[in-house]
Amino acid sequence: MVVSSLRNLLIVLALALSLAGMLVGAPVRAQDTGVPYWASLRGREANLRVGPGEDYRIAWRYHREHLPMKVLRVMEGWRLVQDPDGVRGWMLARFLKRERGAIVRAPEGAPAGWLAEMRAGSEPGARLLWRLQPGVTGRLGDCVDGWCEFDAAGHQGFVRADAVWGAGQP
């Protein structure tokens, strides 16, 4: 009887220690499922921090809605992001939206004064609607055959995918 009770107590103790080890000893990891992915700034202002918490200092303040961000890592309510200039830091998820944005960027080797052409259709011969300066941001639509739908403050058309950062695979 004593041996049986002692054995049951040891089994219960072993199970309790095992459960405690799973709860306490499990490493806290970022939830990296589905990353990287594209996102964009939800509003006109967002802070980029040096770490995933509001106690970390602000490294950068963004003031541009639809600015694209590449999300590299997910950790609770925080996202490790990379901006178009390659700057990396942590941002609260509430400052981001899954709607894709893009920023006009001059392709490698473009001449000084280069402007992106926004056309009525997705081909080089389509009617020219506007010329966009580097730095213009907007909503990015579908990209097919090297052309992307782009909406810059209500000006809608198609731009070459290599003229915007935020197109293609993150």
- From the alpha carbons, calculate the radius of gyration and give it in angstroms: 24 Å
Shape: elongated
Query: Portion of residues in helices?
Result: 10-25%
Tell me the structural class. Answer: mainly beta
Number of contiguous helices: 1
Question: Proportion of β residues?
Answer: 35-45%
Strands side by side in the biggest sheet? 6-5-4-1-7
Q: What is the H-and-E element order?
A: HEEEEEEEEEEEEEE
Low-confidence stretches: 9-30
Largest sheet: 5 strands, antiparallel
* Mean residue pLDDT: 86
Query: What separation lies between the terminal Cα atoms?
Result: 65 Å
Count of individual beta strands? 14
Commentary on this structure:
The chain is mainly beta and 170 residues long. The protein is 14% helix and 41% strand. The strands form four sheets. Strands 6-5-4-1-7 form a five-stranded antiparallel beta sheet, with no helix packed on it. It has a five-stranded antiparallel beta sheet with strand order 13-12-11-8-14, with no helix packed on it. The longest helix has 23 residues, at 2-24. It is elongated. The chain starts with a helix and ends in a 5-residue tail after the last strand. Mean pLDDT is 86; it is low at 9-30.
Keywords:
five-stranded antiparallel β-sheet, mainly beta, 170 residues
Task: Show the helix and strand layout.
Elements: H1 2-24, E1 37-41, E2 46-49, E3 58-62, E4 68-75, E5 78-82, E6 88-92, E7 96-97, E8 101-104, E9 116-119, E10 128-132, E11 137-144, E12 147-152, E13 155-160, E14 164-165
Antiparallel strand pairs: 1-4, 1-7, 2-3, 4-5, 5-6, 8-11, 8-14, 9-10, 11-12, 12-13
